[in-house]
Amino acid sequence: MDKLTYSSTLPYLGEYDICVIGGGPAGVCAAIEAAREGKKTVIVETTGMLGGMATAALVGPFMTCYDSKGEERVVRGIFDEIVDRTIEINGAISPDETDAPSVYTSFLKKYHRRVTPFDSYALQLVLDRMCIEAGVEIFLYTKYVDSVLEDGKIKSIVLAAPEGLVALKAELFIDCTGNADVAAKSGVETWWGSEDGMLPQPGTLFFEVDDADDEAFEGRGKRPTQPTKCYRKPIPGTYKVNHYRVYGVNANSARSMTDAHIEAREQVLDSYKDLLETEGFEHCKITQVAPVLGIRESRHIVGKYRLTVNDISEGVFFDDTVVVFGYGMDVHSRDGQISGGFHGKTARKYTIPYRSLVPEGCSNLLVAGRPISAESQAAGAFRVIPACMAMGQAAGQACAIALGAGCEVGNIDTDLLRDRLRAHGAIVDYEK
Ligand SMILES: Cc1cc2nc3c(=O)[nH]c(=O)nc-3n(C[C@H](O)[C@H](O)[C@H](O)COP(=O)(O)OP(=O)(O)OC[C@H]3O[C@@H](n4cnc5c(N)ncnc54)[C@H](O)[C@@H]3O)c2cc1C
Which domains does the chain have, with CATH numbers? Predict the structure, then answer.
């Protein structure tokens, strides 16, 4: 079919210092950190809630915030505040109080010590409150669609808002869409799936159940039949269910997302029927099915440094480290044939350098969350929620520093960045 050429004059929704696109774990932390530095900050989110996969896709628990052995804390900062605030409203259990194998980890042990069980609604409330308290302006139901570029910079962005197409101006932008939507339309090279042409990790439509028998599950001491995993939530008898997969989903194609979501909806019913055969879940009832399909992987950006599998295996420390993490390289089967699971060796702790958040090709943009510059298998390790939150906090602080210094985001003083993150409770130091 022919292409349509279209031009229009759009009203501005507003003008800001920093615009964060995507309100998932990375985006929320980026916006809070930037706003707390006194910068006029806006967050733009396409769904009706903040939290991304952790709320709209019902994904959880927060994977470990400890080293790979589950012995030492490696993520704090805004992540800790979010956990504490969610605990205050009885919506989470501290990671310091959970262990593996247990009902909280579906009896998985490897890299699963010290997870954070949480309730998605409680998390939504906490994220709204923390953004508002920090002074972040929130636009829900507003989707980024395009960038207007000048001299390698984003001048304005185009959004599909409830009122129609609108524009927004900012000095700096942080792409936290999970899919590198902004980077891909702003002069940054991206690639999809794995760098050697393999499909991205599969998607899954989570659902939740209640009326499960914790004691019977505990007594059984093992997870339900492959691939189903049931993670207990804070309230006894309630579980998040991670189960079948849809392969080859392209999160940037309407047709692919539609087909995948319809297939996944059928899978929920099959999976629920299997669950009813499982000791401890015979009487469970579905309480909710995620409104949004869970996407594990889509685009990756080409940035100043591509984090490698070797960096994670060897626990390389970078001078511009902004995140320390310990989760393993969790790569689900990409096509139902190649085996999934934890790949390669993971050091007790490894790090993410600031340079991996800095894209090549656009000088007023940072990227935080799962699409940062890294090999696909390496991304399997840090794509989980605590690391994405830590990356977001770093990106928000980096933008505040760049604005203060009047320099490009790629040229900030990374020692100052690490000092400020340390002062705000984040862990950026590393001893093997
Ligand atoms: C099935 C599945 C199971 C998982 N299990 C776990 C687990 O148990 N524990 C764990 O810690 N992690 C888990 N993860 C990983 C984790 O949930 C995600 O990788 C993490 O949420 C990524 O954070 P993010 O902020 O980068 O992106 P996301 O969480 O994807 O957030 C991106 C946000 O941007 C919004 N957005 C996207 N495009 C646009 C646009 N164009 N305009 C405006 N807004 C936009 C989205 O609506 C979303 O809110 C799982 C992921 C999946 C898919």
Answer: 13-96+117-198+297-423 (3.50.50.60), 207-289 (no CATH)
Task: Give me the pLDDT at residue 59, please.
Answer: 98
Q: Are 368 and 281 in contact (CB under 8 A)?
A: no
Give the sheet arrangement for strand 229-232, strand by strand: 229-232, 239-242, 207-210, 285-289
Sign, CA dihedral 25-29-30-31, equals positive
Q: Which residues are near ligand 1 (CB < 6 Å)? A: 21-27, 44-47, 52-54, 56-57, 59-63, 143-144, 176-179, 181, 204, 242, 294-296, 369-370, 383-385, 388
How far apart are the CA of 52 and the centre of ligand 1, in A?
A: 5
Among 228, 205, 328, CA closest to 281: 228
159 CA: nearest ligand 1 atom: 42
Q: State in Å: Cα 382 to ligand 1 middle.
A: 12
Q: Please name which of 76, 39, 293 lies closest in space to residue 178, comparing C-alpha atoms.
A: 293
Per-residue pLDDT reduced to its tens digit, 341-376: 899 999 999 999 999 999 999 999 999 999 999 999
Residue 401 Cα, ligand 1 centroid: separation in angstroms?
26
pTM: 0.98
Farthest-apart Cα atoms in the chain, separation: 64
